[in-house]
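Lab notebook page, bench 4
Experiment: in silico fold of construct C2
Operator: M.H.
Input chain length: 535 residues
Purpose: comparison with the prior construct
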Amino acid sequence: MEMNRMLGKAFTEDEVRIAMKQMYPLKAPGPDGMPPLFYQHFWLNIGEVVTKTILDFLNNGLSPPNFNETHIVLIPKINEPKRLSEYRPISLCNVVFRITSKVIANRLKKILPSIISDTQSTFVHGRLITDNILVAFKAMHHINQKRSGKKGEMALKLDMSKAYDRVEWVCLEKIMEKLGFEDKWRKLIMQCVTSVSYSIRINGKPRGHIVPTRGIRQGDPLSPYLFLLYAEGLSVLIQKSVENGELEGVFVCRDDSIIFGKASIEECDTLQRILAIYENASGQQLNRVKTSLFFSSNTSREIQEEIKNRFGAQVIRQHEKYLGLPSLVGRNKRNSFNAIKEKLSKKLAGWKEKLLSKAGKEVLIKAVAQAIPTYTMSCFKIPDSLCNELTSMIRNFWWGQKHDERKMAWLSWDKLCAPKEAGGMGFRQIKQFNLTLLAKQGWWLQTMQDSLLYRLFKARYFPHTEFCKLQSVIIPLMHGGVLLAANTWLSKELVGMWAMGILFRSGAINGCQLLPHTRWCLLGNFCMLTHGSVS
């Protein structure tokens, strides 16, 4: 009731202005021909008219002509695409409508943590995408290590074909009704969804006029949140089957649709029935070519073949990636992370052919080269040898070396990594940055104790103590690092981590006392150091 009251309030000028400022300035323009930067720069001149147009739509349902007109452009998914299926359609909406959609999304996302199951981490406030990466990796590691027992286990990775395009509008409205959204809010959402029209942009000019009867758009700020509501139906069906005893020990990571469960014919039939119900009701269609199965070693060949034939999916030794990261890391960790080196090598090879100033090289190193491994390092402890190779490649690029030629390095890399105020260039030390990102995961575990990730790791590794009090229990973190290392880093390096943008207050945090020997330096006003206010 309280949520509906919050959603049903009249929209205000402040909400419109906030949404406008949140738009990425150089997003591709839609039919209006202007990027968000134009509206942000000239808001004092056009803000009143734009705000009135948006509020008339949000509060009164009045929309001007062509308000929801959309241009579609095709972005290739792979190099040298030859089929239409190898392109990804991106919808370019009018910026005024995008601001409108952003206003609605900003209000909707406030209540999502209360209605979306905790197996979904992306696009939900207070959850991190890395949560499900760690949870899924732990489950995959468990299945990979299970070699005994009568019952095998499996991981089923689903791939829904054209998921956004197959959203049935009637089903979307029914799901919102079941979730308890009031009529006024549902009508506003459906007006945004159903009033759309498309034109295909070919050689820069719009062609045709398409009026769809289903689907939501890639590129609409509201679409990801609506799809979360839509996909909640599958989670509810699976949860009901678990409660009814039809499924045993099933867990769903929704971000990339991977289901963990027992490898039995009965559970296979139940999952098939659930998927069939979901497909028929929602219009979603399982892409069986990309759907894959992974079994534990104690699953018999007969069971594997039977389940494989029933799902029509391929059996693999391991899922290559989950949410962009390896789902399993073997003893040879370098093989799992070589893609980082290859990607960096391709980038540097292209840049070396260009005449770049030192300032240009600095920007490329900081904005691109050193950013490539960041996502992986937020979950994995990358081998030191690979860190050294990445550093060597970046260092050679900085000093202008090509291929096997050698040039003089006029300053050590450690000095180049020092802050500019200390005479350096402010480059990152990859090893230390990796530890810092892992420490961030430790800090997340320490502070977000209601998260699914914390509950899983606590039950598995430290049921009788707190994470910050671990001293001798080694906990594998993505097979390459340890949570204990993150905890040690947090304990010993709290003072220095203010430089990473984290503010620590002395005292107890969730029952964890800061070390008594920690020395707090009087470095002046913190907000002056970070160029922003800190509350």
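Observations: Residues 333-428 form one domain. Confidence is low (pLDDT under 50) at residues 472-482, 494-535.
Next step: discuss at group meeting.
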